[in-house]
Every structure is written in C-alpha cells, then in structure tokens.
Design brief:
By secondary structure, the protein is α/β, with parallel strands linked by helices. 32% of the residues lie in helices and 18% in strands. Strands 1-2-4-3-5-6-7-8 form an eight-stranded mixed beta sheet, sandwiched between helices. Helix 2 crosses helix 3. The N terminus is likely disordered.
C-alpha cells in the first residue's frame, strides 16, 4: 500500500494499489472535498472546482481511463473505482470528507458510500446516474452512445454555448479527451447501462448527510429521477436548478458550490 502525496495543482499522483491518476488540487480550506467527475473534460469543471475551493481543499482526480489517467488492465468496473477511492481515503488518513459525485462520478460516490462511510462526512450527487428506479422496460437514462453529437449537446446543456460543439473544429487535445472519456464510460457503464441493478437496495446504508442536486433541464436523466433517488437515500435533501442541464456544475458552478458549502 502506497502513500498519496498531494503537493501540486496538476500532477500525476499515485494512489493506493499502484494506480497513477491525474489529479487537480485547489484551495487550502480545513474541509476536504473529493470531486469525482463524469465524462466531461476536466476544463469544463474548472470554474466549479475554483468556486468550491473558496471553502474547501478540493481534490479532483480523473478516473482511470479518463483524461490523462492510465487504466490498469484489472480496473474494469465501478466497483473497482469505489474501492480505489475508499482505499485512498484510508491511506490519506482523512476523515469527514465531502464526496461530490458528478453524473457518472455520482454512481461511483454512491458505491463508495454503501460500502463505508467511515471517512465520508457528506455525500453530494449532481445529476447522478447509477440506479434503476423503474421497471425493466422503463428507459430512465438517455442513450449517450447512440445520440448524434448535435442532439447530445442539447441533452447535456440547457445552454449549448457551454458545449464543445462540432468536433471537426475543436482542438485536437479536446477531441482526444472527449473520445477517451467516452470510451472509458462505455467500458465501465455499457452493460447494464449506466447503473448497478443491486445498488438501489443498498442505499439505506448511506449514513451521512446527503444532498442531491439536479438540473431542471437535464435531458439525460430527468429531475423526477433525481427526486426519486433522493427519496431513497435516508434524509437526503433535493435541490433543483432550473436553468441547468445534465452537467449542472458546468452551467451553474457558483450556485452548486454554494449549496455544498452551506450544507457542509
């Protein structure tokens, strides 16, 4: 087991179990927030991380296979990611950590919390996927992989000016990050599609204050899904931001950071 050294803002960092991750660190608050991203580019979360850093020390890794983080061959499931981050919390010695899960990262955060809340002080989910609330024939999460790019942007953002747009005109490094993130998302969430059918039945094990935040114009998972998710987490509070889409932290970074800070 290896010690994690978080000393620079943008550096490759070795987590426990010999996994190297690209980690962004911001702020120097006494409270720590572990931000687990979705499939967005790291640059898209920059404003949110900066806003949250006004009150927290923020640690924001790219998951193995996303961004610039290599993926070991054995790391192929959301379970693996959950155990990786729980192991890091143990190795770091941190307690009372606010775990913030953004979209796909919300699924990872829930898998962490149902396993152990020993070092988690608060759970925050922003437009999370990860559970199945309806029946087997109910489609609750839009098909990210089959939707054309121009239509996908309209589902992800209430204001499509936040989107990268036509990839043919984007920077090469941005296109590579998008492709790599989508490839990793498919690896972790293809079958069953972006959820763990058992997770819903274990949410009662989330024994920390929880906040569920949703974009009112989320075209990937509707606000009703968010309310249903919050209702199944003991004592969870639900907040809706009407002018945001699926990546609410991109469109409303200050508002979400404020909700998290006031709840912590």
């Amino acid at each position: 087991m290896q010690t994690l050294d978080l000393v620079s803002a943008d550096s490759g960092v070795e987590f426990a179990a010999g996994v190297h991750l690209d980690v962004r660190r911001a702020g120097n608050g006494s409270r720590v927030a572990l931000v687990l991203p979705g499939a967005e580019r790291a640059e898209e979360d920059a404003a949110f991380v900066a806003a949250l850093a006004n009150d927290f020390t923020v640690v924001a890794p790219s998951h193995p296979g996303f961004g610039r983080s290599p993926r070991p061959d054995w790391c192929t499931s959301v379970d693996d990611l959950a155990y990786l981050y729980l192991d890091w919390l143990e190795v770091s010695g941190l307690t009372d950590v606010t775990v913030v899960g953004l979209q796909f990262g919300g699924w990872v955060a829930m898998e962490m919390a149902v396993r152990s809340c020993a070092r988690i002080g608060r759970l925050v989910l922003v437009d999370s996927v990860g559970v199945k609330l309806g029946g087997p024939l109910d489609r609750e999460i839009a098909d990210l992989f089959a939707t054309p790019r121009t239509e996908l942007d309209k589902l992800l953002y209430a204001d499509t000016s936040f989107a990268l747009g036509d990839l043919a005109h984007a920077r090469d490094e941005d296109v590579l990050e998008v492709v790599r993130n989508e490839e990793a998302l498919a690896l972790y969430g293809w079958e069953p599609y972006l959820h763990n059918p058992r997770l819903l039945h274990w949410l009662w094990r989330v024994r920390v204050p929880s906040l569920v935040i949703w974009g009112g114009q989320d075209g990937i998972v509707a606000p009703g899904y968010g309310r249903g998710l919050a209702a199944r987490i003991p004592g969870a509070r639900f907040e809706r931001l009407d002018r945001a889409g699926h990546r609410a932290q991109v469109e409303c970074p200050a508002e979400i950071a404020g909700l998290i800070s006031s709840a912590a």
